Amino acid sequence: MTARLNSAQPYALGLFRIVVGLLFLCHGAAKLFGVLGGADGNGGTVDTGTWPTWYAGVIELVGGSLVLLGLGTRAAAFICSGSMAYAYFKMHQPNALWPMENSGEAAAMFCWAFLLLVFTGSGALGLDRLLAKRSTATERPAAEHRPVAA
Q1: Percent of the chain as helix, strand, coil, to the nearest 5
Q2: Are 60 and 85 in contact (CB under 8 A)?
Q3: What would the pLDDT profile of 67-82 be if each residue is shown by its tens digit?
Q4: Residues contacting residue 8 through CB under 8 Å, at least 6 positions apart
Q5: Are 67 and 77 in contact (CB under 8 A)?
Q6: Could you tell me where the beta strands, DSSP code E, fall in the chain?
Q7: Cα–Cα distance between 122 and 70 in angstroms, integer?
Q8: pTM for the full model?
């Protein structure tokens, strides 16, 4: 049973990455474009350039998209994790200590989920893996040409 689960691990990790990236992307789209209820729940958007909400929306949209696609996953996940750590400690934690009390569960979960992706990479089904396969295929040295002896 363990061997079977271990063989599925890259695919489970890839699916995890896709779901986390999609959910994060949705938060950014809501803030920047007013979709899915918008930033205020009524279809509103945040004002361009407002600190930190607009910048968080850009990180969520771009970072979530990159993680969803599995493109530059480790770097994008690192930035996304840091933005969620900032969101938790600057916006939520001053209100109360525990995430249940300060409504910071989403920020804490996203922070740790992205930190996991920093260390594990994109898993299966990501463009990182596809591009790595292509680059190793083109970097292989050409076969040595030996003269044919008659």
Answers
A1: 70, 0, 30
A2: no
A3: 999 999 999 999 999 9
A4: none
A5: yes
A6: none
A7: 5
A8: 0.84
Token digits of residue 43: 């279809």
Task: Read off the amino acid at residue 12.
Answer: A
C-alpha 63: how far from chain center: 6
Which tokens sit at 55?
Answer: 């910048």
CB within 8 Å of 10: residues ≥ 6 apart:
123, 124
Residue 141, burial from CB neighbour count under 10 angstroms (0-12, 13-18, 19+): exposed
C-beta contacts of 76-79 below 8 A and 24+ residues apart: 77/114, 77/115, 77/117, 77/118, 78/114, 78/118
Q: How far apart are CA 79 and CA 71, in angstroms?
A: 14
Alpha-carbon gap, residue 58 to 79, rounded angstroms: 11
With tokens 């992205």, the residue in question is 114
CB 57 within 8 A of CB 46: yes
How do residues 117-149 score in pLDDT, each as one tens digit? 999 999 898 998 888 877 777 765 555 556 555
Q: Quick check: 70 and 23 in contact, CB under 8 A? A: no
